[in-house]
Specification:
The chain is α+β, with helices and mostly antiparallel strands. Helices cover 44% and strands 17% of the residues. It is built from 7 helices and 4 strands. The longest helix has 18 residues. The radius of gyration is 20 Å and the shape is globular. 36% of the residues are buried.
């Protein structure tokens, strides 16, 4: 009986070391708050969650684009720093104008762009929580599941866009794009 128990324990130990962890199967840092992960980890987890959802719906993966990322980062920081939450800047500039200023649309014969914004504090600033909020919103969901998009920029500011929004906090901007 004791030998069987040892064999069962040994088999379980081997299974645990061979089986992938939840993070290996899922997206590392998807459940991390902004207080417990670097911006790079949060951006990667957000991209992973987006691409996992797209793959589940038979869509191609999005690739990070430096110019779209620059537009998204700048907007997330601006909203958090200046306490507003909108696709338009306080000066009235649209997300298309912000993307155009990065040079992303230069020499494009045709293009399509879109933007998703979100913010959350405490447990709601996690990439997984943000993704669930987007998927429960028809407009945000449509952007995520738009098969035309091929590239994305992701920006995260570690603050809320409203005074006293709670901490930890994260303000997210994602700029989607495709061009020819």
């Amino acid at each position: 009986m004791a030998t069987r128990a040892l064999i069962a324990v040994a088999a379980l130990a081997v299974a645990l070391t061979v089986a992938p962890s939840a993070d290996a199967r899922g997206c590392t840092a998807a459940n991390a708050t902004t207080a417990h992960a670097t911006k790079r980890q949060i951006v990667r987890a957000t991209l992973c969650e987006l691409n996992r959802t797209r793959a589940h719906h038979g869509l191609k993966r999005l690739r990070i684009n430096k110019r779209l990322s620059r537009a998204a980062r700048r907007h997330a920081r601006d909203m958090a720093r200046r306490n507003y939450f909108s696709h338009d800047t306080l000066g009235g500039g649209s997300f298309v104008e912000r993307i155009r200023r990065t040079g992303y649309l230069r020499n494009a014969h045709s293009w399509i762009v879109g933007e998703n914004l979100a913010w959350g504090s405490k447990a709601f600033c996690r990439p997984g929580s943000i993704m669930r909020m987007w998927m429960n919103s028809p407009g945000h969901r449509a952007n995520i599941l738009n098969g035309t998009y091929r590239e994305i920029g992701i920006g995260v500011a570690y603050d809320s866009p409203v005074p006293h929004g709670g901490h930890p906090a994260g303000t997210y901007a994602t700029d989607f794009g495709a061009k020819r």
